Structure prediction request, 280 residues.
Amino acid sequence: MKGAQGWGKGGCHGERSRDARCAVILVVDDEITARLVTREVLINAGFSVEEAEDGDAALRAIDDVKPDIVIADVMMPIMDGFTLCKEIRRRPDGRLLPVLMVTGLDDVASIHRAYEVGANRLHRETLQLARALPENPPYGP
Amino acid sequence: MIAGGPLGPAYIDITVLDGLRSLQREGFPDLVAKILTTYLTETSKTLVTLSKAVQDRNAQEIQFVAHNSNRAAPAWGHSVSLPSSDNLKPWEGKAKIDTVPEVISEIMAEYEGVRCTLEIELAGRGDCVIAEPSRPVTQ
Prediction:
């Protein structure tokens, strides 16, 4: 259920479920406090949440859990969010996967780069993104 | 409940903490305590990393650490209002790196205040010793 009425309303409450009502969100962030808060906000909104600490781990998680949405920080070790997004778009199953990026980088070049690599949206703050998501669902590019 | 502390409510947005409290699920561990404990533990490590990066004059590492610390604090309602936001961001020029120790000292002093406030919150009692932060030196 991925329509505007359906996102996050399945009541999965964090437990990984194959229930079709549960949208699975992969949160990719090396900053543990931000990741923890994002997870709790999303779980409370009814989403099922998986986590990864960097882009490399995120690509493995995408293979494993097949998320419906990816939320990724930009500045991460090993593989940053820009590279992650580019890699996702190169995959046949990643072309339409909504990727929402979070960055404190507010220069024009970073904003352009996020959209160039295929991000659907760019947010300045994770908490604000997580709170807005149930009412404002993303769609593929 | 946080009602002030060394930094006062001007630095800590209680509505964010209250919002997080509202996410508490029945039968699960105290969410706010978990977030604040995680923040304190991770920030202590971050400051060590930051000090070392300053000593090594590693601008890239400083920028990376600054990015993360500027994302961690707002997640639970701490508005980072010291120079950390502005002065740590564009830290690529050598001219600016000379001012880093002063900025780091301010950040550490701020963190000590936050730490005390949060430890009082977590312990439910009102005493905390604020340590005098050491000033990192560049070589």
Q: What stands out?
A: The first strand of chain A starts at residue 24 and ends at 28.
